[in-house]
Please model this.
Amino acid sequence: MYKVYILKSTIKNRYYIGHTCNLKARLNRHNRGLVKSTKAYRSWKIIYTENKESKKEAYKRELQIKSYKKGQAFKKLINL
Model:
């Protein structure tokens, strides 16, 4: 089982979209500064998750969410 997730920075109005098979460990890596693209905006909290059966499905959904570019579809997804 894979999870597609959206994180929100607790210090800036920034979001990160990704996928993983171990969400707890992945969030820990983000918050410890071990992910280059999220290091500057620590700390992070999970605001959305979605389960997918395979890595391929999770990656495809991650790209779809990223294509929303913070438009109405993105806002609807995270309930803004």
Remarks:
- The domain at 2-77 is CATH 3.40.1440 (GIY-YIG endonuclease).
- The chain has a mean pLDDT of 95.
- The CA atoms of residues 19 and 79 lie 20 Å apart.
- The two ends are 27 Å apart (CA to CA).
